Amino acid sequence: MTNRRFTQALESMRSPDARLRTHGFDFLREHADAYVDELIAEFGREPDDELRCWLLELISEARSPRALGVLAGELESDDDSVRFWAIRGLEMLDTPGAHEALERAREGGWIT
User: Fold this and answer.
1) A Pfam family in this protein (predicted)?
2) For a designed S-S bond to 36, which of 57, 64, 72, 86 qualifies (C-beta 3.0 to 4.6 A apart)?
């Protein structure tokens, strides 16, 4: 996989054409594990709330331990969709660190 393919897929996700957005998302979902670092970087830079949520969903799909920090960091998000994907991503990651992050969030009252 090249960064050019990642860039093209991300550009498609930003398109006003719903078909192109879906195509870009589907490509990245199939290859999320190969692009996890790029997805995490884009998530941190992305200002659009809807695209941030999609990126977090893709980061979750990667099931990479490298995603632990970003997923745990979004457990306190004010955005319900972002918080949902942070929880789901940590559940999918299913590591001791992910379980600890979820437990801390429950104890802190951020999630139920």
Assistant:
1) HEAT_2
2) 64
Number of residues in the chain: 112
Task: Give me the sign of the Cα torsion angle 40, 49, 57, 72.
Answer: positive
**Other Cβ atoms within 10 Å of 111 Cβ, number:** 17
Q: Kindly report the pTM of this predicted structure.
A: 0.93
